[in-house]
Amino acid sequence: MSRNALTLVFPAAVVLLVCSLVVLFLTATGLEPGPLLVAEEEPARGCGVVADSATLAWRARVAEAQQRRASLTPADAAAVDAGDALFKSNCAQCHAIDDVVVGPALAGIGQRRPLPWIVKWVQNSSRVVASGDEYGVKLFNQYQKQQMPSFQLSAEQIQQIMKYVEVEAGNRVVLSGAQAVALN
Ligand code: HEC
């Protein structure tokens, strides 16, 4: 290899090595986002390039998600992970956290309804509506009498989904232990 080519290749190799080490370090120290709360990837940028606003916004979101996550007990973190998976496979086709899709946005549901009501609703919403439940009937009419499917999920699984919803919404009011006890 000519001397000229070497002066090009060598610095490039060093930059590549430094970049990989930085990524390795961030991963090892846990500064990289966990898979749960931050779905997006950091915007692509060269190593050493001054961070643009998209990157700064991304970092702020990562820090926020980490804070939320760090304030969870290990048991709650496991419940949130389980709720995340359950939500994606059962509810996400009709519900989002902050937007109306087919059904209402679920952010703040823990304040709107007590957990035992939510459990009954998710297990069989038409029974709740048929019972004459005022809130349920109103909601059902408001959503053009579109019936939500019934789910064979346990109270615990539904609570996990709600915990996930609360954390995702950035809402610090995690469903209280008292409500969980009321279920038993
Ligand atoms: C096929 C669409 C669909 C699916 C799937 C679905 N929902 Fe719904 N959901 C609705 C609709 C529509 C409403 C509004 C009430 C109605 O029309 O019955 C609703 C209402 C709700 C409410 C009351 C919201 C409020 O603001 O009071 C909760 C809680 C809820 N759904 C939870 C869930 C959960 C948890 C899952 C997954 C296990 C789920 N839903 C899956 C369509 C759906």
The count of helical stretches stands at: 9
Q: Rough shape?
A: elongated
Unreliable stretches, pLDDT < 50, 5 or more residues? 32-40, 171-184
Largest sheet: none
Quote the beta fraction: under 5%
Helix residue percentage: 55-70%
| Helix and strand composition category | mainly alpha
**What is the residue-averaged pLDDT?**
77
Distance between the termini: 75 Å
Which H/E pattern describes the elements?
HHHHHHHHH
Assigned CATH class of the largest domain: Mainly Alpha
What Rg do the Cα atoms give? 23 Å
CATH architecture of the largest domain: Orthogonal Bundle
Number of domains: 2
CATH superfamily of the largest domain: Cytochrome c-like domain
Instruction: Count the beta strands.
Output: 0
List the helices and strands and how they pair.
Blueprint: H1 3-28, H2 53-70, H3 74-90, H4 109-112, H5 115-123, H6 125-130, H7 134-142, H8 155-168, H9 177-183
Helix pairs in contact: 3-8
This protein binds heme C (HEC).
Task: Provide an overview of this structure.
This is Cytochrome c. Helix 3 packs across helix 8. The chain folds into two domains: 3-70, no CATH class; 74-183, Cytochrome Bc1 Complex, Chain D, domain 2. It has 184 residues and is mostly helical. The termini are far apart. The longest helix has 26 residues, at 3-28. It has nine helices and no strands. Bound molecules: heme C. Heme C binds at residues 90-91, 93-95, 102-104, 109, 112-113, 118, 121-122, 125, 139-140, 143, 146-149, 151, 161. Heme C binds next to helix 4, helix 5 and helix 7.
